[in-house]
Write a structure and sequence with these properties.
This protein is 44% helix and 20% strand. The chain is an alpha/beta fold. The longest helix is centred in the N-terminal third of the chain and has 29 residues. The radius of gyration is 20 Å and the shape is elongated.
Length: 180
């Protein structure tokens, strides 16, 4: 019986050590200067480029290909409740601004089938791409989502909305970027 107890204690110590290692790793990761963190500290960082596979279309989309336009980048996932609420707002904003503003949805940490069903269910027609591992999302600020960035034609972040985007704040951020 004491041998079983020793094995259990060694296993418990190993588990605690693994959890401590995970905590240290997460703290180090959170210290990285993400786009969101730099923006909230008063900077106007350049939006980090990405090239990701399209969800509603063929090929891939590169953020760099949209330079010279105002761009709205919305990080979302099919499992995210606030994302479901804001999806119709983004589609409506896309329809209002489509001649002057590029919209890009970034589906992060999600299954492609769930994401495609989400787009169909909410009638989303603007370009959406997949970030299945959350690699791009992590550079922009990580979980939780949604997160929305409004980028000026020069490529600098002009607006940032953490959490569910309300129509007024989305319109305000877009108008500000259009006036730069």
């Amino acid at each position: 019986m004491s041998r079983l107890k020793l094995v259990g204690q060694v296993g418990a110590v190993g588990l605690v050590a693994a959890l401590l290692g995970l905590l240290v790793w997460k703290v180090v990761q959170n210290d990285k200067p993400t786009v969101a963190k730099r923006f909230t500290q008063g900077e106007r960082p350049v939006a980090e480029n990405f090239t990701l596979e399209r969800l509603n279309g063929d090929g891939s989309l590169s953020l760099a290909s949209l330079r010279g336009k105002v761009v709205v980048i919305n990080f979302w996932a099919a499992w995210c409740d606030p994302c479901k609420t804001e999806a119709p707002r983004f589609q409506a904003a896309y329809e209002r601004y489509r001649d002057r503003v590029a919209f890009v949805g970034v589906d992060a940490n999600d299954f492609s089938g769930d994401a495609r069903s989400f787009l169909a269910r909410y009638g989303v027609t603007y370009p959406n791409v997949r970030d299945p591992s959350g690699r791009v999302l992590d550079r922009y600020g990580g979980l939780p989502i949604p997160r929305t960035f409004v980028v000026s034609p020069s490529g600098r972040v002009q607006g940032y909305i953490f959490g569910e985007a309300r129509e007024e704040e989305l319109d305000s951020a877009i108008q500000k970027a259009l006036s730069t």
